[in-house]
Amino acid sequence: MYKNIIFDFGGVVVNFNPRDFLMDHFMNRRAEEETYDIVFGSQEWQDLDRGIITREEANKIMLEKAAHANRVFEVQTCLDEWFTMLETNKTTVQIMRKLKAAGYRLYYLTNIPTDVMDELRQREWFSLFDGGIASCDVHLCKPEPEIFTTLMQTCHLAYDESIFVDDNKANAQAAYNLGITGILYKNPKSFTRALGACGIEVE
């Protein structure tokens, strides 16, 4: 019997699609790909998630790379405006509220930089969570098994009583490999169907 639902943030609770963001801003395939590699696909972005570099340090390195690639305008625009992507997925939050009202305990497990985590903690839906782990706080990232076991041990969760929801297949698979039921999030409708397949009705 499931008791715990564990949520990723980006791409599940809040919108996060860097490639769409870049396409909307630049509408130039080469510029989009090069900017993606310098920012979202960079080692610095991974280090921000892991909490081992500051935003100021990361931005400085990214802009240095941008100068070499002649992409300073694009990268600076991205660094200035990417936060606007992080709109709350209101339908997912509605599902979370229904789960909470039905007695399920909600947790989060997310790869996220410190400054973004600080901002999300201020959102009204954050109080729905009973606990969780942010990668920046433990210096671990999904899909590393250690971040999952850290969450389970810290929050005293049973593996066979927990469902993990993520929009990244590798992360959902990592949870499954540890004995946690994994749901690959695509949209609220498919998420609701997946919960139903687990015996959890939210409609």
UniProtKB/TrEMBL annotation:
Gene3D superfamilies: HAD superfamily/HAD-like (3.40.50.1000), Putative phosphatase, domain 2 (1.10.150.240). This is Putative hydrolase of the HAD superfamily. One of its GO terms (molecular function) is hydrolase activity. It comes from Gemmiger formicilis. SUPFAM superfamilies: HAD-like (SSF56784). It holds the Pfam family Hydrolase. NCBIfam families: HAD-SF-IA-v3. The keyword Hydrolase applies. InterPro entries: HAD-like_sf, HAD-SF_hydro_IA, HAD_sf, PGP-like_dom2. Keywords: Hydrolase. The keyword Cell membrane does not apply. It comes from the Bacteria.
